[in-house]
Design brief:
The protein is α+β, with helices and mostly antiparallel strands and 121 residues long. It has one domain: Double Stranded RNA Binding Domain (2-Layer Sandwich), CATH 3.30.160. Strands 1, 2, 3, 4, 5, 6 and 7 form a seven-stranded antiparallel sheet that branches. β4 and β5 form a beta hairpin. The longest helix has 15 residues. The protein is globular. The protein starts with 5 loop residues before the first strand and ends with a helix.
Length: 121
């Protein structure tokens, strides 16, 4: 991980096997190339690689070309809970569990951190 990549996690609980995630934010340096291309690559990768979220992989909801941001949400809210992903400027990704924390195995939590870190490097 590069020095300019920052990871901030808000966990409700954790143990050696799993975590209850409230939010995870990863920020890095400015993207190489256009912000639009970075957002497109990031949203496609997240949709493809995060199938293990409660409710399934988040799908693209909205892209705002003026503010260079994209919004993704899990496809199947369970019990009013869903995962929301906000991508900004190609250098910031925030994953939030809405309606309550989400359960992730320790393995999937580490995969998520690695995936998001790689997308902003």
């Amino acid at each position: 991980m590069r020095d300019d990549v920052k990871v901030k996690a808000d966990l409700e609980a954790e143990d050696t096997l799993a975590v209850r995630l409230n939010s995870l934010q990863v920020t890095g340096g400015p993207p190489e190339g256009s912000v639009r291309d970075a957002l497109e690559r990031q949203t496609q990768t997240i949709a493809r690689e995060t199938t293990w979220f409660e409710g399934g992989a988040p799908g693209l909801v909205e892209v705002d070309g003026v503010s260079n941001a994209a919004l993704m949400r899990s496809k199947k809210p369970e019990g009013g809970r869903f995962i929301q992903v906000v991508l900004r400027g190609g250098d910031s990704i925030q994953v939030e569990a809405k309606g309550g924390s989400t359960h992730l195995s320790r393995e999937n939590y580490e995969k998520l951190k690695d995936l998001l870190t790689g997308l902003v490097e």
